[in-house]
Amino acid sequence: MEQVFSKLRGDKWIWIIVIILSVWSLLAVYSSVGTLAYKEGKGTELYLVKHFSIIVVGWILMYLSHKLDYKWYAGISKLLMMITIPLLLYTLVFGETVNDASRWVTIPVINQTFQTSDLAKLALITFLARMLSRKALEIKDLKKSFVPIMGTVCLVFVLIAWANLSTALMLFGTSVLLLLIGRVSFKQIAVVCAGGGVLLLLVVFLGPRRATYISRVEGFFKTEEVTEGHVPFQEDKNYQANNAKIAIATGGLFGKGPGNSIQRNVLPHPYSDFIFAIIIEEYGTVGGVVLLFLYLALMYRCIRIVTMSPRAFGAFLAAGLGFSLTIQALANMAVAVGLGPVTGVPLPLVSMGGTSILFTSIALGIILSVSRNIEELKGKQELEEEPRARKVVIGTVA
Prior knowledge:
Blueprint: H1 2-6, H2 12-32, H3 34-40, H4 44-67, H5 72-94, E1 96-98, E2 101-107, E3 112-115, H6 116-134, H7 142-161, H8 165-181, H9 186-206, H10 210-221, H11 239-251, H12 275-308, H13 312-336, H14 355-397
Antiparallel strand pairs: 1-2, 2-3
Helix pairs in contact: 2-4, 2-12, 4-14, 5-6, 5-7, 6-7, 6-8, 6-13, 7-8, 7-9, 8-9, 8-13, 9-10, 11-12, 12-13, 13-14
């Protein structure tokens, strides 16, 4: 183990948390894909191998991302934004539509779907970190800083929200947190929130998924209603939420044990959106608390990196990416336990998925790159201070 960690740089606790979440993900996904495998006429082992392959690729991307000096991401962020905005537009017009949501683009040759909002999250956060660090002295200037920054945020928000409102709201919230850290005035932030609220209303009432949004909100506030007779799950507004609650309630304190979930055969997406409910059913409340603690510990390590970073860009990167991952995890858990309306947000590094795991791994690699830079600077300072300390000791002895 020591030999492995000797080749890895950056915060060792983040590496450990990622490994634990990845292993837990393999167990949870393998346990919850039985119904999906039956419907598609495939073996569960095939999904396990595919998921394991994605996790391995994610580890490789995280390792490569953490080896690259984080200062390079300032330049890369501009390129990512130039790619992201046209790609989001292309997705809305030509992307694959599922449940009235056009979120995916099929990659030629390999014939795999790609969710462009995952790239947009990484691109916007790195771009914001660059802009806030470079415009620190003139951050309150309306023309030079505020309009370019918030214009980009609002544009990306609308392009994502049109098909994926939950992801857009979380990204907007992360952007506002970065603005607070970047010492943007409360008045300007209030203007941003007001503008975001107007855009939100336009998307909710004019967007293609307005019926879905209204139905989910109504279902969340009317959970006590009981419909007489048999209702197909496609028409039951609370079908997913109610079955997730059953999974959690029957899990008890220590759970039914790995692979013994019952609700995995009932929930439509037990391997992605509601995997946290399956984890509590199998590992109990104790397992759910441990998983929550891992994400909070990850956020704590990111905050620690923020406080230790000597450069503003590195601090903004660690803060933005750390907040984004933690908010997404808390949102997924909140939906599973009935504290929020149903969304399509996966649990980072745990839910089955392709682009979500890959871009989450890259984000963690960037955070580790900032941490690695801090370690290297600290090591250089110690080397420089050692000869001075020897001189002081020799002089004292003499």
